[in-house]
Amino acid sequence: MRAKKWAMVLWILFSTLGIVYAGSPVWEVSNGTTRLFIGGTIHVLGQNDYPLPPAFDRAYKNSQTLVFETDIAQTQDPEFAKTLMGQMVYTDNKNLKTLLTPKTFDDLARFAGERGIPMEVLTPFKPGMVMVFLTLAEIERLGVAGIGVDEFYFKKATADQRQMKFLEPPMDQIQFLAKIGEGKENQMIAYILEDIGKLPDLLPIMKKAWRSGNNELMYQQTLAPLKKEYPDLYQTIMVKRNRAWLPVIQKMMTTPEVEFILVGTAHLAGDQGLISLLEKKGYKAINQ
Q1: Do the Cβ atoms of 236 and 176 come closer than 8 Å?
Q2: Pairing of strands 259-264, 35-41
Q3: Distance between first and last Cα of the chain
Q4: CA nearest 91: which of 99, 80, 100, 79?
Q5: pLDDT tens for residues 37-50?
Q6: Torsion angles phi and psi, residue 166, rounded to 5
Q7: Would you say the C-alpha torsion 225, 266, 220, 137 has a positive or negative sign?
Q8: Which of 150, 190, 207, 271 is buried most, with the most CB atoms less than 10 Å from its CB?
Q9: pTM recorded for the entire structure
């Protein structure tokens, strides 16, 4: 899977969007002695979304190390794509036809057909990959299939020979994707169809909230419904990952170098978001 499309996968998983409106998607976090920057990102943007909010460039200029969710270069390796696809296909004679109710399977076939995706393509795959296929088709239809903040700064940091670090290995993201909806395939596919159907109306709201730093709006429009309707998924892709990243970020606060951490904007929102978790640990977060 090409880097551009993998960036879309990340957006699908981790930017499906409290803190109060602040004005920027970037925060400075400090302990009184050392500091770092955290920027909320949208993984897929259109041309008209550039230039990015100036707080990103200021944080880049005032930091020495860029920190991404995962190593984007590794996700471009053909072996990564091979591993991803291998993890996402059912075995033991299972497929969506055997796991879904007739109604959900028909709903999926109708939606996929409207997007030009044959059901024989989708049927062997797990819900996580179905979500990827359908959302890619939708965002391409909406004309927003360009590179996002992460890839923009990954390319810039590579060209500038900046030091880079990562919060988790790419295999962790494959495992998250493979386990989405495990044992609850029918419920998960029904949720995916409902959620993607809202995307044309939701996407402009998400972008506006992201650009202005209005994480409360982000949370209410996206994470709150996810938490209510599919709490297991909310715990898996948001809460558990945030809590796994927290000690890694805390360790960065002990070094003299200044890091600029870039994560999907949803990871900053809500009482389980990274900003709130860091504040509970005694750090001060100031919006930039």
Answers
A1: yes
A2: parallel
A3: 35
A4: 99
A5: 999 998 878 788 88
A6: -140, 145
A7: negative
A8: 150
A9: 0.84
